[in-house]
Design goal:
Distance between the termini: 68 Å
Strand content: 25-35%
Order of helices and strands: EHEHEHEHEHEEEEEHEEEEEH
Helix content: 25-40%
CATH architecture of the largest domain: 3-Layer(aba) Sandwich
Radius of gyration: 22 Å
Length: 255
């Protein structure tokens, strides 16, 4: 009994490159049955179309406009049944980053049929990567957070987040409009977005650009005063811990 066809999604901003990949897949069909279930020319299209495609393998170009393939791979990590990722690129400079993202394979253009066949055989036996592995590469901070709701990926611009607050094993992202939940450690967010966010408490990072000032919290004496941060566009006031107050004051004093 023959193996079921691998479901393939092709992401490349150049139509001739996508056409070439489909030709290679057709040539390999007898030895490695595949079915192209979707294609896209940029990262946003991939995020919109990939979940419904139920693809087993994503053939992903790295250099795409608006969002690189490396960043896109990180945004796909929250999907419960995401595809195995095979990067396809004209450059070998991103190989280390790709494998830190737990890429199944890394193909250089022009792609040879034998290399593509080897990657597909690997995909058939390996299955999808564990989602948490796709969070490792930290070469550059993300421009967006990935939020999965009903198996759809929504991008929340980092610049729109007012604060990040750890609660149990989750982190709440607060924008001016609403709250979102992500499952990433606060310490990792602090490391990645050190230029954009400031720690004010062991469980809270605040966007530097959103800080409008500080006020003493009511009820404390002059010697035991607590401070709260005031935020643009948000009525909620967040406490600054005694441990962080000196560092916060020094950092903001040099802005």
């Amino acid at each position: 009994m023959s193996a079921p066809a691998l479901r393939i999604f092709i992401a490349d901003d150049e139509p001739p490159a996508r056409a070439r990949m489909k030709e290679l897949l057709d040539d390999l069909h007898e030895a490695c049955p595949t079915l192209v279930v979707g294609e896209a020319g940029n990262g946003l299209e991939v995020l919109e179309r990939l979940p419904d495609s139920r693809a087993d393998v994503l053939l992903l170009d790295i250099q795409m406009p608006g969002m690189t393939g490396l960043e896109l791979a990180r945004h796909l990590s929250p999907l419960e049944a995401g595809p195995a990722i095979v990067f396809v690129t004209a450059h070998d400079a991103h190989a280390v980053d790709a494998f830190e993202l737990n890429a199944l394979d890394y193909l250089l253009k022009p792609v040879r049929a034998a290399r593509l066949a080897a990657a597909l055989r690997k995909a058939r036996h390996a299955g999808p990567p564990p989602g948490e592995a796709l969070q490792r590469a930290q070469a550059l901070p993300r421009a967006n957070f990935s939020i999965v709701e009903r198996n759809r990926i929504h991008l929340i611009p980092v610049a729109s987040v007012v604060y990040c607050k750890a609660e149990l094993k989750y982190v709440t992202l607060r924008t001016l409009e609403r709250e979102f939940i992500i499952e990433e450690p606060l310490v990792s967010l602090e490391r990645e977005f050190a230029d954009a966010f400031l720690r004010i408490h062991r469980n809270c990072l605040v966007a530097r650009a959103a800080i409008s000032g500080f006020e003493r919290a009511p009820g404390g004496s002059e010697d035991e005063s607590h401070w709260e941060v005031l935020l643009d566009g948000v009525a909620e006031r967040l406490p600054v811990s005694r441990r962080q107050w000196t560092a916060v004051r020094e950092i903001l004093g040099h802005r």
